[in-house]
Amino acid sequence: MIAASSAQAGALRCAEDAEGGACVWGRAEGFEAGALQVRGLHIALAGLTVPGRKDLCGSKATKEDFDCARPARKRMAELVAKGVACEILDVAAGQLWGRCRSADGDIGRLMVQAGVARAAKDGPYGDAQKQAVQGKKGLWAADMILPRDWEAARRKAEDED
Questions:
Q1: Closest among 49, 57, 68 to 128, alpha carbons compared
Q2: Where are the beta strands (DSSP E) in 76-161?
């Protein structure tokens, strides 16, 4: 469980967890579009998928290609600037998977709502993705040319209406 600390205004800390769950908090030492590093631990955000650095998106308006992950990295920088608290959910193949919060809320949900990440299948952010697609936010904007798998996700979300 993640709770706000009374020691520092706005800082996040992990609450005492009677069930023995792992949680780490502090300043993000590094980050990428779908993962961050806190206290030396590399934590991938569970429940979302971000475009890879090699995925190219395009703008119909400017007719220019760009790294699809760039908007996700920018949003992540904004969200982790004031510190994070991450609950470790799983360890698979040497990778820590977690759900992290910033002062603004659940980072995964905020990334998906902004349209810079896609909700993982059967993950907790399906409703947030639907809102982003309907609102034409981020990579779901009307003038975006997306990689094939992202375009399929957009069509699926629009068909569910």
A1: 49
A2: 84-92, 95-102, 105-106, 118-119, 144-145
The residue assigned the tokens 């919060």 is: 101
Delineate the domains of the chain, giving CATH numbers in brackets.
2-159 (2.40.50.90)
Whole-model pTM: value is 0.82
Backbone region of residue 124 per phi and psi (left: phi > 0; alpha: psi in -120 to 50; beta: other values): alpha
Q: In 3-state terms, what secondary structure has residue 1?
A: coil
Beta bridge partners, 66, equal 57
pLDDT tens readout for residues 103-132:
999 999 999 999 999 999 889 999 999 999
Q: Where are the beta strands (DSSP E) in the chain?
A: 2-4, 12-14, 23-26, 28-32, 35-38, 41-45, 48-49, 56-59, 65-67, 84-92, 95-102, 105-106, 118-119, 144-145
Cα 90 to Cα 21, 27, 36, 107, 127: the distances in Å are 10, 21, 15, 17, 23
The residue to which tokens 């961050």 are assigned: 36
